[in-house]
Specification:
It is a single chain. This protein has 402 residues and is an alpha/beta fold. The chain has 2 domains: 30 residues; 319 residues, SGNH hydrolase (Rossmann fold, 3-Layer(aba) Sandwich). Helix content is 41%, strand content 11%. The strands form 2 sheets. The chain has a 5-stranded parallel beta sheet with strand order 4-3-5-7-8, with helices on both faces. A 3-stranded mixed beta sheet has the order 2-1-6, with no helix packed on it. Helix 4 crosses helix 15 and helix 5 runs parallel beside helix 10. The radius of gyration is 26 Å and the shape is globular. It starts with a helix and ends with a helix.
Length: 402
């Protein structure tokens, strides 16, 4: 029997059309997989550090978000090194986080300022990273979260804890208070955030176009963008741009040039005088600690409080360098006396009343400084790697024994 040639020819265009459709669909699926791999979206669309650094009537937008960026910090009077801060999709100096922790893993959340974030040190030497490494060495499965933010204090910690705890459900929270946190105005109310999520079904390319339209940083898998915490003159963010004539009377020429170039913290002018005032200020954080405890209890999360002293509370060694940022200061301002240690004593008393574990790191740091084992940098007031790691070891030992 002979085949019908017209029927055979009719089938070929249909198969060809189907093949083209399948080819296009395959390309679209491949493209979607590539974009989803290159641009992994965080679980929460509007959880970002700038939301918690905001004060007063500031209303940050997604265009202000810090996301997957390599931030730089320099302090050339101390070292020629540039310290890199690889920010995750939420703008914190840490690996990316999932809302759900891994099974069998303890999640420890660290909240604090730049001493938790780990300014002037490599990421693996900061407190949360060292804590996690110690736990791993002990055979424990522990995931630490570094929620440290430079330039914040108690009011910001309240909002951060209020919003972060219910979402990430840590097994424990360690709130680290640095000396200057205690005297900051603590009356700011808690800022609640109504969190949103990106669509899991929407094509990733369309999501990226919308993000670009909002000028929102794209969550590229790698840290290809670079930025600096401080900007050089003539940036309006650098106060030397408009106040150089006034500022030069307070600092040495070397410090002045470093501040103008954003190679040194330009907010350290006469800082030691401000420190003297806040260290001896009469402050009672009983109410604030009660709020922290309530927030932790609402999430069934154990809370611990740690206090880190200023370098001037434990030694006079660094004053010789501080004076180069405060030429009008007296020959010596001694802040090692008991009148400058009142905040740690207050915290210990209030934590005891509230049943909160409290660790004062002042004796540990002072004992090192007494043997001329200098833990802080000379000019920048943050710690060297050995200082952060020493404190992390003590925090880990203290947390483990409790």
């Amino acid at each position: 029997m002979s085949r019908n040639p017209r029927k055979s020819k009719a089938k070929k265009p249909k198969r060809k059309g189907l093949n083209i459709v399948l080819y296009i669909l395959g390309l679209l699926v491949f493209q979607e997989l590539i974009f989803r791999w290159l641009f992994p979206l965080p679980d929460l669309a509007n959880f970002n550090r700038v939301e918690f650094q905001a004060t007063g009537n500031m209303q940050p937008t997604s265009a202000n978000y810090v996301r997957k960026v390599d931030m730089h910090w320099r302090s050339t009077p101390d070292t020629n090194a540039t310290f890199h801060y690889l920010m995750n999709a939420y703008g914190f100096r840490d690996k990316d986080w999932d809302l759900e922790k891994s099974s069998g893993t303890d999640r420890i959340m660290f909240i604090g300022d730049s001493f938790v974030e780990g300014m002037m040190v490599e990421e693996e030497k900061n407190i949360p990273s060292t804590f996690e490494a110690l736990a791993t060495a002990d055979g424990r499965s522990v995931e630490t979260m570094n929620l440290g933010m430079m330039g914040v204090g108690v009011p910001h910690y309240k909002s951060l804890m209020y919003n972060a705890l219910p979402k990430f459900n840590p097994d424990e929270v360690i709130l680290v208070l640095y000396a200057n946190d205690v005297a900051i105005d603590n009356e700011t109310g808690i800022r609640g955030i109504k969190f949103t999520s990106y669509s899991s079904t929407r094509p990733r390319l369309l999501e990226l176009f919308d993000m670009a339209g909002r000028k929102e940083p794209l969550p590229f898998r790698w840290h290809i963008r670079e930025d600096s915490f401080y900007k050089p003159v003539p940036s309006p963010q650098n106060p030397w741009t408009t106040n150089e004539q006034e500022y030069r009377q307070y600092v040495t020429p070397q410090i002045a040039e470093a501040m103008k170039a954003a190679d040194f913290n330009y907010f350290r002018i006469n800082w030691v005088q401000q420190e003297q005032n806040y260290l001896r200020a009469k402050v009672d954080l009983g109410k604030d600690l009660g709020i922290f405890k309530k927030l932790a209890d609402q999430n069934n999360t154990p809370l611990r409080i740690v206090y880190i002293p200023s370098r001037h509370q434990v030694t006079n060694y660094y004053y010789q360098f501080e004076r180069k940022c405060c030429l009008t200061c007296p020959g010596m301002i001694d802040m090692t006396g008991p009148e400058y240690q009142v905040h740690a004593a207050m915290l210990a008393q209030r934590c005891q009343q509230l049943g909160l574990p409290f660790l004062d790191l002042t004796p540990l740091v002072k004992s090192a400084e007494d043997t001329e084992n200098h833990l802080y940098w000379d000019y920048d007031d943050h710690m060297r790697g050995k200082g952060y790691q020493m404190m992390a070891r003590e925090i880990y030992r203290w947390a483990a024994e409790k």
